[in-house]
Amino acid sequence: MNTITNNFSQLKRSIIFKCLFLFFVLFSFNLTAQEFNLSGELRPRFENKYGFKTLRTDGDEAANFISQRTRINFNFKKSKMIFKVALQNVRVWGDVSTLAADDNAISFHEAWAEAVLSEKWSMKFGRQEIIYDDSRIFGNVGWAQQARSHDALLVKFTPTSNHRVDLGFAYNADSQSGIDALYSNAAGYKTFQYGWYHGKFDKVKVSFLLLNTGIEYLENVGTIDEDKTIDFMQTIGPRVTYKAGKISADASIYFQTGKSLDKSVSSAYFGGNFGYKINDNFKAGIGGEYLSGKDMDDTSTDLKSFAPLFGTNHKFNGWMDYFYVGNHANNVGLVDIYFNLAYTKDKFSAKIIPHIFSSAADIINGSGEKTDNYLGTEIDFALGYKLTKSINLNAGYSQMLATDSMEIIKGGDSSIHNSWAWVMVTFKPNLFNYKAEKQKQ
User: Fold this and answer.
1) Sequence-ordered strand ranges (E) for 295-410
2) pLDDT attached to residue 241
3) Domain membership of residue 246 as a residue range
């Protein structure tokens, strides 16, 4: 008992010390600071998973749990510098004993500084969220309690208010070892370099992404020529959006080429949406995506399945996460046709989105025969209510109506009930805000 109590006390002192240290560092800039903001977030979410991500089998019982994300955000800004630290704790209620300390309780979701070199140039260093366009290739995965951030260097160039160019760089290692060691690819890549352009032209906006992703691995394993190498895959493509009056539309095309883990890559993505604002309360839309895949009887080693890489994949292809959320990689791809109807009035919102899923490549059954590409239909429904400016209540229900073809690629039983339900409360208080008059730097 004494050991447990001592461990808890040590953890508590450690957390208090970290917070006090951050406060000291930030407030030490007060003489020249222009703005300092302290905000928080606490987001508990109950989930009932009953065939989530994959079809369940008869006899499987639903999983029920409450997860929680807690954040403290420190934001500091002056004329030549922007600084942010986001402390984060992610847990499942009950995963730690009531008498035990959680040694991994606190992490840094973000910890970056940006040097503002001029009105047109800046450089951003450190752990940061990288989000572009609709988050299809780069997103923060905000739905996931832990979310996503990268250790990277970002160079921003804004020649005019309507044009922007970003250059990003990352290079990862597992430790500060004195000798070169094989990287575990914990981040999903050893290195990346990218360029992103965004331009505004009246009612049209255009983006273009060029991403070079490198993964390290051992080649010639077990031979005298065994050595580390990095293969590079390129993701290239534009995105165009249009908005005028009650109409909105967008289209994206990406291609992937190069190599990954000693395999040639050749894949493609096409996506588009059309939306119409019916009135002040209702909006409707239709859209579709094609992500290339590989025929199940294709014996080549080439990678033909498109990989959305660092995107917020939960946002796309159904909220039950059957596709591209830690799964469905190097598979038969996907064709997703969907509709959406959204309603908002005052503090209340509602949305329903049915998805019709098919494979982009051939599915082969146990008898070696090609079977139907239609995988099933998922219906997503969500409600939202804004209790106050800082408190939101959301709930949702999704159901997967799968086919035998889905069983072939996912396993499980398509004839039984598969669903997911959730309820979430989000608290985002603004804890403290300080703004000083501009002083001599």
Assistant:
1) 334-345, 348-358, 363-364, 370-371, 374-388, 391-402
2) 98
3) 2-435
